[in-house]
Amino acid sequence: MTERTLAIIKPDAVKKNAIGDIIKQYEAAGLRPVAIRMMQLSKAVAEGFYAVHRSRPFFDSLTTFMSSGPVVVLALVGEDAIKRHRELMGATDPAKAAPGTIRAAHGANIEFNAVHGSDAPETARFEIGYFFPEMDLAVR
Ligand code: ADP
Ligand code: MG
Questions:
Q1: How far is the CA of 28 from the centre of ligand 2 (A)?
Q2: pTM of the entire structure?
Q3: Residue nearest to atom 17 of ligand 1 (CA)
């Protein structure tokens, strides 16, 4: 099933000049970008994006991190894109991420873990809509 997912190249990975490497891995895995936006999130925008984590102990730290520098936000399309993207990213904690995954290569720890990926169809819909109006998504 062809589906969409949302990816974010987080501030740590942008600072490490890993944008090109990460997008290359999306394309090689058959996850085709249909919208790309580089931006700096405000704390409030990061809080809105991660609203599901509002009661978690790491919420303030996470949203401070996510608004600490520029990010690259992408809508990706492909077969089983949500699951395949999560596999390509690796586990949340880079120390537990399988070798060859993006987080194993570029993540530093469970918080500074290089990339975000939607975890289900409903969250992908919300997350893509949070950053992109439907008319900005290319058809590929
Ligand atoms: P994922 O990004 O793999 O879907 P979660 O949705 O559980 O993981 O968490 C969202 C983000 O919050 C993580 O990517 C990571 O940046 C941060 N995070 C998760 N767990 C922790 C933690 N225990 N301590 C600090 N930051 C965390
Ligand atoms: Mg998540």
A1: 23
A2: 0.98
A3: 111
Q: Of 44, 37, 43, 48, nearest to 9 (Cα)?
A: 37
The answer to whether residue 136 sits within a structural domain is no
Has residue 138 been placed in a domain? no
**Catalytic residue list contains 53:** no
pLDDT digits (tens, 9 = 90+) for 24-77: 999 999 999 999 999 999 999 999 999 999 999 999 999 999 999 999 999 999
Token pair belonging to 63? 């949203």
Would you say the CB of residue 106 lies under 6 angstroms from ligand 1? no
Give the number of whichever ligand sits closest to the CA of residue 96.
1
Give the ligand 1 atom nearest the CA of 50.
Answer: 10
H or E, element range at 128: helix 121-131
Query: What CATH number is associated with residue 99?
Result: 3.30.70.141
Domain count for the chain, please give it.
1
